[in-house]
Amino acid sequence: MNQEKRIISASMLASDFSQSGNEAKAVAAAGSDWLHIDVMDGVFVPNITIGVPFVQAMKKSVSIPLDVHLMIVQPEKHIHAFAKTGADILTIHCENNPNIHYTLMEIRKLGVRPAVAINPGTPAILVEPILPFIDMVLVMTVNPGFGGQKFIPETLSKIRQIRQWSDERNLNLNIQVDGGINGETAGLCAEAGANVLVAGTAIFGYPEGYAAGIQALR
Ligand code: DX5
Ligand code: ZN
Predict the structure, then answer these.
(1) Are 48 and 22 in contact (CB under 8 A)?
(2) 37 CA distance to ligand 1 centroid (A)?
């Protein structure tokens, strides 16, 4: 994977929430291509984070694309509200959505790019039927819910498989990875076929600052 093609999406989960607007501006100025926003409901994942008002605030703060990762049950009830915030990408999970194709089509109708996430314990084949209808697959490289976890290397084979499907069918999919991504694991994921890297700790916690953290991922 060509280095110039790597898209970096800084995860606000690792930012200082008392300074959210400034943190988003700082990370955009440091070179983050997208802003990753983790919405958690305490049901689909064991943690609760933020929702629509936070995404609205981010839209006012930065002009880079907002990459909104919905870790919530029944996302179809909320996609209209998130689309109105100006979110550019809406990622929903495949694990608990019996009508996922319908929900993805609704997201596209709302003018937002649809994406699907798969957890470490979910087989790649579950997203295979919906690949022609989406812009991106998010391969979770940790179990969703918390930042700062350790990368699970067994997820790499799913990245390879999905990249192969994308190439065979000329789908030109973005493949995103999220969880435990740093300078080292970014290389492994890119080699397997991922081109969008989400990172929280490796950017907001990078000792030499955000720009250096982003550079280390490229
Ligand atoms: C975890 C979230 C991630 C999280 C990643 O459920 O989806 O976006 O912020 O954090 P790091 O990069 O610290 O592993
Ligand atoms: Zn995320």
Answers:
(1) no
(2) 10
